[in-house]
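Weekly structure sync, notes
Attendees: PL (lead), two postdocs, one rotation student
Agenda item 3: pending single-chain targets
PL asked that the sequence for the first pending target be pasted directly into the notes so everyone works from the same version. It is reproduced below exactly as submitted, 309 residues in total.
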Amino acid sequence: MTRNFLVVDPEEGMAVLKGLASPVRVKILKLLHEKGSQNVNDIAHILDLPQSTVSSNVSILEDAGLVRSETQKARKGNQKICHSTFDEVLVAFKEDIAKVKGGHIEVSMPLGLYTSCDVLAPCGLCTPDGVVGLLDVPDTFLDPERMRAGLIWFTRGHVEYQFPNNAKLSDTEIEAIEFSMELSSEVPGTSADWPSDISVWVNGTDIGTWTSPGDYGDKRGVYTPSWWKLKGSQYGKLKTFRVTKDGSYVDGLKISPVTLADLDISAHHSIRLRVGIRDDATRPGGINIFGRGFGNYDQDIVMRIYQAR
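Predicted structure, written out during the meeting:
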């Protein structure tokens, strides 16, 4: 199982070390790790702490990049939902950081943890246990239950994810960055012959488009749950989008001249990945994104940063 981890150089990562240097903050992180995303009121109730104490400590964890928060509508006003950013925090000096993960840094992003979305119906989300909210209602993409999504589909628009830029902790040069995800077209029912131009953006730069041949439903996906009807999308193709110094590729085939220099990764604390269907797509055949609990690969969206040895 792929886990999200952060490598900290103690000489430069003082904000992270400060974030961990408190029993209260450690309890908050442990709670989010074990129980998943929680709002501030729930954290205060479960840990039996004043809400003011939780709020101030969550702010410190946010500054350290250990917690990501978003505001959502509640029954009365708004609520702040907190997410744990990492499963593990590793402390290592600079000369050792490049050795982590054999020269590359890997982060897995659950499908539902997108930081922004703009989708058009037909659209919907599913967890391994059932459908989230209402089908074909774009506002459902704001439902808190989306955090557990294993399948997302929409006709036009995009979802965007914000990955931590762990490469900033290392002085080694980046050789390539890649994103791996299971994708297919989207059509009412299924059709193996339903091409769709699926585009990918990194840090706001369009790196290229892959044309999905169809929406696959000839057999149940290896991990697709039994309750999901066979007439629905079952699986996709596992595609790897890779950006190097020479250009952008999908599964080794060049799709655009966009290079690492165009992404300016070192200037950002995060790496933004956007996946979707362009308004001017030649073949706007929709998109399915498969995550854990659906499809043939049982993985979320995986980012890998390869460093020079």
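Discussion points:
- The CA atoms of residues 195 and 213 lie 4 Å apart.
- The radius of gyration is 20 Å.
Action: rotation student to compare against the earlier draft before next sync.
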